[in-house]
Write a structure and sequence with these properties.
Layout lengths: L5 H12 L4 H8 L3 H15 L1
Amino acid sequence: MNFHGTEVRQKALTLLRGDVRNADVARKLNVPVGTVGYWKHEDRAEAR
């Protein structure tokens, strides 16, 4: 399930790849910190 939409996830990943902290991304996009952390984890796994 994708509650936040692909666009929000892509914005978050762009910020995270730019070394913005999870909490700052979550605050900026109004998404739970855990969700941002999960997206970051998935992104790292895909990069392998």
